[in-house]
Amino acid sequence: MKKIIVLMFLSLFFLFLFPIQGNAAANTSKIFLNGEQLSLPNDVQVTIVNKNVMIPIRVVAENLKFDVDWNQQARQVKIQQNEKVISLTVDQKQAMVADKQVTLNTAPQILNQTLVVPIRFVSEQMGLSVKWNNQEKIVYLTGSNNESDKASGVDSGGSGTTSLTHVTDIVFADNQLVVSMDGEQVQPVISTLKNPDRLVVDLPGTVFGDLAQPLDQGFNGKLDVTGYPNVSEVRYSLFKRDPGQVRIVVELNNVKDVQFDHNVIADKLLINLNVSGDSVTPVPVTPVIDTGRKVVVIDPGHGGSDPGTISITNKPEKEYVLALGLKVQALLLNEPDIDLVMTRDSDVYPTRSERVQLANELNADVFVSIHGNSATSSPQASGTETFYYQRSSSKDLANIIHERLVKALGFKDRRVKNGNLQVIRETTMPAVLLEIGFLSNAAEEKAMSSEEVQAKAAQAIVDGIKEYLGI
């Protein structure tokens, strides 16, 4: 009887570890436990649910000898290993670890008569180290009592271990490196090296989490840098394993000088890489004739080859911000005292430097960059936040537009913040960057994609600009 209960629980646990969007999508994924491939029944599949990796609990329990108690009536399962007790309830995000309540990203579910739970929960609460190879759809599990824990380079999160931050995404676009992390904020150590020229980013106290980019068996990987002539390679690796330290190297090609700045915002590290090659061709700017009207530059972020973040329904940020930007454009074109300039009005990609150059050469009165926020490791994150850079005039503009946006949309107020971002740092006029809401949040993404909410946001932005300019 006990074995039947264990099998039921493991099946449920494995399914919960790999969440899906809508219905769970079965696949032919493999699972390795302490270096040995597990023999899976035909009806057991690794699954993705709402971008969370899920795994049937019965496979893990059978091999690690967890004590499992399944309460069919209450739809609760209790897992015990030595003194550690974990209690989960089907379709509820709240779980109990000993006497402490924790919140899961995705609730345990029963799919195809199998109980599944998220693999991250196993890693951090059940004493397992976990690595997910997204490219080959392979799960690597390491028991916390196994010496290969250190070799795996993945934090188990169990008692007696150091809590490590998980690197969950690495993106390089428009000479900007964006690293997303889940855990304590990390202060990077950044250096430049010669022969060849390269920028080295070390992240102390970090390991790889459920990284979207592929990793090989040695915990190494590379990004596609096609289209960046001054960058020959961006590679990443688990540089140290005890304690963990992720290293990212940006290798450069034919550059005269390497300059960079960085900023840590919430769960993201942003590194702006300014490289000068052998020649620089200036971007032509058509001057605006001085008509006495105020010049306003609206910047829908990203575009073209740069999709921006990907929403929870797999839509690129560039589409959302362009749709909103065009609504702002339509309103401002009706303002007789404003000359409007768009950094883009189609799916093209002007670089951040080109956007800055455009606004500065126009001697614009106001610069507004429109974006959608994301926190893939925290899908419950929500709200509107607005960034400015140091100048009091920019802060005044930020406060005015932000107040109108929050009132119009009703999203959580994440406040006005000082942010070291290129398009608001290097522009010379009052400049703000608007994070309208979180595209990684299902409710906000749905609202932000609606014509009604976009119209409200556009009107709020325009009203804020006019108030600041005194029009």
List keywords for this structure.
single chain; 471 residues; alpha+beta; six-stranded mixed beta sheet; five-stranded antiparallel beta sheet; 10 helices; globular; disordered N terminus
Describe, in plain words, how this protein is organized in 3D.
The structure is a single chain. With 471 residues, this protein is α+β, with helices and mostly antiparallel strands. The chain is 23% helix and 36% strand. It has ten helices and 29 strands. The protein has helices at 2-16, 57-64, 119-125, 148-152, 317-332, 352-361, 392-409, 422-425, 442-448, 451-469; strands spanning 30-33, 36-37, 47-49, 52-56, 67-71, 76-81, 84-89, 94-97, 100-103, 109-111, 114-118, 128-133, 138-143, 165-173, 176-182, 189-193, 198-204, 206-208, 220-223, 231-241, 244-252, 257-265, 268-276, 294-300, 338-342, 366-373, 384-388, 413-418, 431-438. Strands 25-24-26-29-27-28 form a six-stranded mixed β-sheet. Strands 5-6-7-8-9 form a five-stranded antiparallel β-sheet. Helix 1 packs across helix 2 and helix 7 runs antiparallel to helix 10. The longest helix has 19 residues, at 451-469.
